[in-house]
Amino acid sequence: MPPRTLHPALRELALTVRILSRNPSAVMGGTIIAAMVFLALFAPLLAPYDPVRLSLPDRLLPPGGGHFFGTDELGRDIFTRVLYGARISLSIGLLVISVAGGIGALIGATSGYFGGKIDSVVMRVMDVILSFPSLVLALALAAALGPSLVNAIFATAFVMIPKFARMVRGEALAVREMPFVAASRVAGAGHGFIIRRHILPNCLNSAIVLATLTLGDAILIAASLSFIGLGAQPPTPEWGAMIASGRKFLMDQWWYATFPGLFILATVIGFNIFGDALRDVLDPRIRR
Amino acid sequence: MRILAYTFRRLLAAIPVLLGVSVLAFLISHAIPGDPARLIVGPKASKEAVEAIRKEHGLDRPLPVQYLHFLGGLLTGDLGRSIRNHRPVTEDLADYFPATLELTLASLVLCLSVGIPLGILAAVRRNRFADHAARVVSVVGVSTPVFWLGLMLLLLFYRHLSWLPGSGRLDVTSAPPAGVTGLYVVDAVLAGNWPLLREAVSHLILPAFCLSYVYLAIITRIVRSSMIAVLGQDYITTARANGLSAGRVVFKHAFKNSLIPTVTIVGLSLGELLGGAILTETIFAWPGMGKYVVDSVNALDFPAIMGFTLVASTAYVAINLGVDVLYAFLNPRIRY
Hints:
The complex is a heterodimer of chains A (288) and B (336).
Chain A: H1 8-21, H2 24-41, H3 43-46, H4 78-114, H5 116-130, H6 134-145, H7 149-175, H8 179-186, H9 191-228, H10 239-247, H11 254-282
Chain B: H1 2-29, H2 36-41, H3 47-56, H4 63-75, H5 89-124, H6 129-143, H7 146-160, H8 184-191, H9 194-231, H10 234-241, H11 246-283, H12 289-298, H13 302-330
Helix pairs in contact in B: 1-13, 5-6, 5-9, 5-11, 5-13, 6-9, 7-9, 7-11, 8-9, 9-11, 11-12, 11-13, 12-13
């Protein structure tokens, strides 16, 4: 029995972790994510070489010997670059989700809380953004802003804002009818305070699930932009950009494009299955 | 009649959305850093030439006026001129459209013909081997980078096994069939040219599979979960108790009712296929709108990029509208 003195939020967290640890897909997804985070954090210690230093005598070596995943056309070790790529891709995913989630949640909470005209205008704007296939809009935006990693992150975040806004708005519509919101109003709380203290915290669970599930998508879209040439620029060891340069050598040096892709695949699988399990656990209708 | 009225109302509701789309596209094209007039005349042109182009294109007028001008162009099918080849973007896109249509249709056929049976199988044999296999297929599917999958397919089926061709819609030496629809597979059949049909199909297989895989995964998932929901209902038990064969129960009673969520997802996927086509066409050198837009990105050809964006989103809106109507048609309980 957990001690009664524990803060309710902590007790909730402990319960979530306990349920998740009994869910095989959560454990698998969590392990993959943890492994990627580990590789990303300790890349400088784990990587045998320098990710950007050229070594022309070693170019396009097949896997084996001193080079686990072989080398690229400039003699750089692909294993090293893939490890450093984990730092970039995970940071991209986190940044995109924080920006899109933060802005989207704020828009959704405000829109749902006030309702009426503001709500319908804001939601129509979100509908317009959703009327573009996501990669198409991200591509147009990234192309207009100019090819760079920061612009690709911004473009990816932009197309994801409506997902968060819609979800949080739906929750906000329900929460604002709760008695404690009315009580808070009567006690003299302002709109900003209510949105911050009551509306947003009550949307947190769903937002976390959505964030986990869309993190994989964010990594995929950003990698696609880099592959097209609109994201990370050489010599940045970004996975999508590495696949783009490896494409030229595909027929004879298979390892070049293959390994970065495997890492994208593994990372996104990790987030997707962990997100699915998290949704099952955090959904109170299924819980307990 | 009610469906017709409903369709009409949905059509009206799409107009403000499309207007919004045009505003957003206009704003994006004005977010381009640098001077669009300078972009048109090139870096070496004189100040006077830039000024003249600015006047000619109305770039010196206030933004709302420019937008109205842009909108007027859109309504008459004018998407501006490509910077690369100075042709109207509309003509360029019209040239590349059939290839994209052929690819997306083939992918859709693959998605449905594999995804639906796989989803049904997974639902009927829940928690058995087929279900686990379907789950693995769908988790991997939604997590695979399309462009990387395309490269791996090329590596395996083109480079190592030499089973299928690696790029284009036909062999380099072949002439396309007489154009009726612009879809080579259909045109080859219409012309009765069987060797050409074989060639067109063999070129289509890898890109279509590559493009369909993600959506196949999504469709499998949705069919499975909606079938499971339907199979648990009382009328299915009754049908079984009445002695109907398992096949009849599954296909006639359960599948029909699980179609509604499936149709929604298929509609959404079909629109997203346009996004996937960008990457797939680039990998397989498929001469469609997706490859066109990537080439435009590399040439900084903004009118072409925006033209594609507008066409893709209009198609997306139209598809979703079609799905809404189909939805109302499939589910007689929905009356608006």
